[in-house]
Amino acid sequence: MKNSFVYIIIFLISLGFLLGERKTPVSDQGNLFQKEVEDYLKKAEIIRVEKDKIMGRTALWKVTLYNGDVSREGYFKYIDRSRPKIPTDSFKYEIAAYELSKLLGLEIIPPIVEREIEGIKGSLQIGIKEFITESYRKRSGDIPPDADKFHRTIETIRIFENLVYDECNDENDIFIQKEDWKVWRVDFTEAFSPSPELILNCELTCCSRKLYENLQNISDELIKTRLFLYLNKKEIKALLERKNIVLKKITKLIKERGKEAVLW
């Protein structure tokens, strides 16, 4: 529940303002591919910056962008208390988590880029349109239209949380787009602890074939090359050790229960 207050506030703001608050004849183009969204976040004009609107430890800014065609909202984090600073809280871990998710072929984190706003470097993440949190979904009793697909995505997120060693099962960090039930995981500013172990009480039970193969095939050197700007040597070393532990865990499950019961 480390950042539930922040994201509850984001949720309330998003319902009223996310996408298209600018009074221009533009329309949102829907779900853009990762690269397209990244390009948008890097190049779109920043037409409004709202500070001190969303309270919380990350002190994030709500940003409105416009590229001459589409107006969208984003969230900018600039706090950088990377390890060994305590308490740990850094926008660099947000970017590292997103880059790792792309290496693994996952689309569970809303696109993030590094950008400078008002002379300050930070992470700029696209806003999610009309969502609820997993916590809210459970309280309201909403049932996913495709329950198997939904729960498989949650299992994928759980694997990823173990990889990056971020808080597991924080249901306020899981966003669900009501239009299509797309599931996202947000907030990794405290991730990548240099702990060479999996998260306690964050059990792995199944995995997609694609993710299992990608974990097997991705090289340690590629991970180091992609993440060295955002993580220190201890954090990268622990990440690689956790990757091996996750692989061993899934392989063991396959031997015990069979491929069809573990992989989809």
Cα gyration radius (Å): 18 Å
Beta-strand residue fraction: 15-25%
Task: Give, in order, the helices and strands.
Answer: HHEEEEEHEEEHHEEHHHH
Number of domains: 2
Short description:
Strand 2 (61-66) and strand 3 (71-77) form a beta hairpin. 41% of the residues lie in helices and 17% in strands.
SSE blueprint and pairings:
Blueprint: H1 4-17, H2 34-43, E1 45-50, E2 61-66, E3 71-77, E4 80-81, E5 89-90, H3 91-103, E6 112-117, E7 120-126, E8 131-133, H4 134-140, H5 147-164, E9 174-177, E10 183-185, H6 209-217, H7 220-227, H8 233-257, H9 259-262
Antiparallel strand pairs: 1-2, 2-3, 3-7, 4-5, 6-7, 8-9, 9-10
Helix pairs in contact: 5-8
Structural account:
With 264 residues, the protein is an alpha+beta fold. The protein folds into 2 domains: 4-126, no CATH class; 131-262, no CATH class. The protein is built from 9 helices and 10 strands. It has helices spanning 4-17, 34-43, 91-103, 134-140, 147-164, 209-217, 220-227, 233-257, 259-262; strands at 45-50, 61-66, 71-77, 80-81, 89-90, 112-117, 120-126, 131-133, 174-177, 183-185. A 5-stranded antiparallel sheet has the order 1-2-3-7-6. A 3-stranded antiparallel sheet has the order 8-9-10, with helices on both faces. A two-stranded antiparallel sheet has the order 4-5. Helix 5 (147-164) packs across helix 8 (233-257). Residues 4-32 have low confidence and may be disordered.
